[in-house]
Amino acid sequence: MLLALTRPVSPSLVDCQLTHLARQPIDFARAAAEHAEYERRLAGLGASVRRLPAEPTLPDAAFIEDTAVVVDDLAVITRPGAESRRPETATVAAQLAEHRTIVSIEPPGTLDGGDVLVVDREVYVGRSTRTNDSGIEQLRRALEPLGFRITVIPVTRCLHLKSAVTRVAERTLLLNPAWIAADAFSAYAQVTVDPSEPAAANAVALGGSILHSSQHRRTRARLETAGLSVIPVPMTELAKAEAGITCCSIIFEVS
């Protein structure tokens, strides 16, 4: 069974962390509706959605992906690069402890889950403003004994590695070559975003389909031309908080 952990949008979302975007007004009700639609789509594609308790004082709490990296029988609890986000990890760790052995990133390491792309036994880790060398080395020590290989990718033009590249099929990646070095992923087939939609490389592959932000119509057409089934999900308000499709869940197998 696939379990998808989510968390409600915080009413303090307007105070979210921002790195590459200018702050804009965010319609909380609309953001919450977008998130609810996202959860419905996850369920429709076969995931069992488990919503964690709300964290109304933590603006970025809905972007739960950044709090953990889950593989096989192990969950790595991150230490987010933004200090204000570190309280988000406790409830996630408690939930994941029901299903996985837990290890945690310790100071001075920082690691955001959005910087970690797992493709089979390959783990690509973005060295970004949120993820530092110590965090990467701790992740390496946790995962390499399990047979994973770590590759570090510099990330300078966007928030997270998965802002620029995500997996959309077994051996196919969606990426923005203006934000990330495409040759680092030469072993895979690639669909590139439409240049007018630089933030369109973030997607969730699930149940034979792809969840993709509905505002990125031109990139969606490219995915469909590549023979992929795309389900558009509204993300207009959540995107103002520098969020992507993958940010809003942690999806993993449970027995």
Number of strands: 15
CATH architecture: 5-stranded Propeller
The H-level CATH homologous superfamily, spelled out, is L-arginine/glycine Amidinotransferase, Chain A
Measured by DSSP, the beta-strand proportion falls in: 25-35%
Q: How far do the termini sit from each other? A: 6 Å
* CATH class call: Alpha Beta
Look at the structure and give the mean pLDDT. Answer: 97
Low confidence ranges: none
Give a quick account of the main beta sheet: strands, pairing sense, barrel closure: 3 strands, mixed
The rounded Rg comes to 17 Å
Number of domains: 1
Supply the helix-strand structural class.
alpha/beta
Strand order of the largest sheet: 2-1-15
Approximately how much helix is present in the residues? 10-25%
Helix segment count?
Answer: 6
- The CATH topology annotation reads as L-arginine/glycine Amidinotransferase, Chain A
Shape: globular
Can you write the helix and strand succession as a string?
EHEEEHEEEHEHEEEEEHEHE
Description:
This protein is an alpha/beta fold and 255 residues long. It has a single domain (2-253), classed as L-arginine/glycine Amidinotransferase, Chain A (5-stranded Propeller). 21% of the residues lie in helices and 27% in strands. The protein is built from 6 helices and 15 strands. The strands form 5 sheets. Strands 2-1-15 form a 3-stranded mixed beta sheet, with helices on one face. Helix 2 links the parallel strand 4 and strand 5. The relative contact order is 0.18. The mean pLDDT is 97.
